[in-house]
Design brief:
By secondary structure, the chain is mainly α. The chain is built from five helices and two strands. The chain has helices at 2-12, 56-84, 88-113, 117-144, 148-157; strands spanning 26-31, 40-45. The radius of gyration is 26 Å and the shape is elongated. It starts with a helix and ends with a helix.
């Protein structure tokens, strides 16, 4: 199905592949009405048009997905930076990135498993509270203690 969607996006750009013909997108199917009747051949067509539900939210969802991936890559880059040059900039950047990464991850779990409007609102409120407390705690730790980078280095040294 994804290949058809990609193919349809190419075809909307006025590029018509040779194998993209309506006769090739039809597949025959046989349906028995009941056991005594002859099989009736039917033809099912694959629709290559854009889905009806793709509206304004699809752009926001795409941007959110991209932001999640960029943050994950940034976290991968921050780990060696934290090892080779620990300091307050990296500590606070890690605090923000880890909190946001956890917030988005737990938010996806809540979206998948919490059903019901009132339960979802309560779960989201709890998630925002947890994320706020986590970020404040990490900033407090960075300001009043050794910081995230040195704390991890101290854990590894023993």
């Amino acid at each position: 199905m994804a290949a058809i969607v990609r193919l349809s996006s190419v075809c909307r750009r006025s590029v018509k592949p040779l194998f993209y013909q309506s006769s090739l997108l039809a597949r025959p199917a046989v349906v028995l009405h009941n056991e005594r009747q002859q099989p009736l051949p039917l033809t099912a067509r694959i629709h290559s048009s854009q889905p009806l539900y793709a509206g304004s939210d699809s752009k926001a969802a795409s941007l959110h997905w991209t932001a999640e991936r960029v943050l994950s890559i940034a976290l991968l880059a921050m780990v060696p930076a934290a090892y080779f040059s620990p300091g307050p900039v990296i500590d606070y950047s890690l605090a923000a990135a880890l909190t946001l990464h956890g917030h988005w991850g737990i938010g996806q779990v809540l979206t998948d498993y919490v059903k019901g409007d009132a339960k979802m609102k309560m779960a989201n409120a709890g998630l925002f509270l947890l994320s706020t407390v986590t970020f404040a705690g990490l900033c407090y730790f960075n300001y009043n203690d050794v910081g995230i980078c040195k704390a991890v280095a101290l854990l590894w040294s023993k």
